[in-house]
Design brief:
Helix content is 34%, strand content 18%. By secondary structure, it is an alpha/beta fold. Helix 10 runs parallel beside helix 12. It is globular, with a radius of gyration of 22 Å. 40% of the residues are buried.
Amino acid sequence: MDIGSAEEILAAGKADFVAMCRPLLADPAMPRKYALGREGERRPCLRCQYCGLRLLVPAVINCAVNPFLGNETEFPEGKVKRAEVRKRVAVVGGGPAGLEALETLCARGHDVTLYEKRDRLGGHVVEGSVLPFKRDVRDYLDYLVRRAGRAPARILLNTEATRELLDAEGYDALVIAVGSTPVVPPLGGIDKPHVHWAPEADSGAAAVGERTVVVGAGSVGVECALGLRMRGKDVTLVEMAPDLSGLSASAGGAAMELTALLEKYAIPVRHYCRLEEVTDGTVLCRDTRTGDIREFPADTVLLALGVTPRREEAENLRRSAPETEVFIVGDAAEPGTIATAVRSAFRAAAYI
């Protein structure tokens, strides 16, 4: 929800009054930005319920995309202070953590260079935004790219930051936001050509046949399965856990909605199934209760088994600035969500 959507609702006669809560937590200045013709600068709400879940802790309300919310005592004007000494700072990685670090460092007045080895910004948010029901994530990705484009920083795409490159530049500080890589278990057949990371199927980077098995029923696996079923594909989810607790942990407030969609589209979820092997036409899983092997036909196998930090890459780079001025943030430190990526990067950059 934003001012534009509210105007459409009012114009169509669907309501006489529109109130908002979460969009204003994400960006308290959103109405003013629309009034000034700067709606492209609004920070969009993800509708992820990160703020709502904080109420259940209970804890101070925070926002996944607005790191100032809940930190008004520390940042009373909703902005960081200018640094006393301007530094040359490198940010390695252009995902949500790297881009939050970039924005915060520029606000501090530093000379910032961001290195991104891919040809576009966004990190895993790129793949995470392509499914038809991920409009809010697409809005956030567009916002990140627009915001980075306005930043007074040097952004180098298609450029891998090596230790030699960083050493030659002699940066005063370094933010390492190299992200994470998919977990791929060392099992028989896992390297077959019809086995892919689930988000690659979402984005169209990997071809999908007519009968797919998605391994892992967290948010990535469930969303992928839903996307395939919406395209008319036959899809089965296999999950080692006895329930969908992994979905609740990874999807947060969206878990109930995703569970309802699984039921709506009649997608079978086979629990107690631990992946053992992939053959040319089947997926073999071991029943964790009985030890028996269960066989599922598949012409495509998609893995959604989580991600692991790019620790080796981060460790290789961390000596390229003084030890006390190097910060590893986002998934590179610990795999998490957009919220954890944004908040960890902000906390580091706000005090460089």
